[in-house]
Amino acid sequence: MEQFLKNGILFALFTAIGYIALTIVWGSVMPYNYLRPNLNYRMGSYGHMFSRVQEAEKARQVDVLVMGSSHAYRGFDPRIFETAGIDLFNFGSSSQTPLQSKVLLERYIDSIGAGTVILEVYPALFGSDGVESTLDLIANTPIDCSTFELVRKVNHIKTWNTFIYGIVMECIGKREAFEEKAQKKEDLYISNGYVEKELSYFDGEMKDSYSLSEFNPEQFQYFEETLHLLKERGTEV
Q: Residue 24's closest CA among 166, 230, 220?
């Protein structure tokens, strides 16, 4: 029995090490996403989250902090608020659900020190699994204990694989060497977190993009926990 347990432990250890090694190699040598559908590490990806985080780490005592999805980082232009004497920082990210909002606030709210927080609320994201936004955060924000907690809560094979790969990329200094361009096709990153896009016009057919049947009670719980966090700090919401 004792030998069986030892063999079982050694096998589990070998399997874990082998899996991690294979994940790193596969992510490094496969050039196309369709060849690694469960590993999606994109530093400097859609939404300019990398640039936004670089500024967030230096932002101090802003008047207003905005959290939410692309509706947030494409909808709240700090330059407009500046004309009214309001210092606004936009911390939206692509498909940001209440879970990612909570994690980012826990990490940065004390250093940024905003007196008011605007939470952009999009119904579809209360039914989201949070995978897309978590992948965005893994690749474009520093990896720490809160990142692990985020990955654990989302608990998806794609986020676990990307998390493993991301740790290695961070250890070898890929983040420090990376520089994100402000202009990407039609998108232009504006200081303090806003993304400006060339004007276009809707010419399609309007369709519902979400269903109330997809409501995820855990996301609503994270939303309530965020409100509680801000209330404890005396922050206006």
A: 166
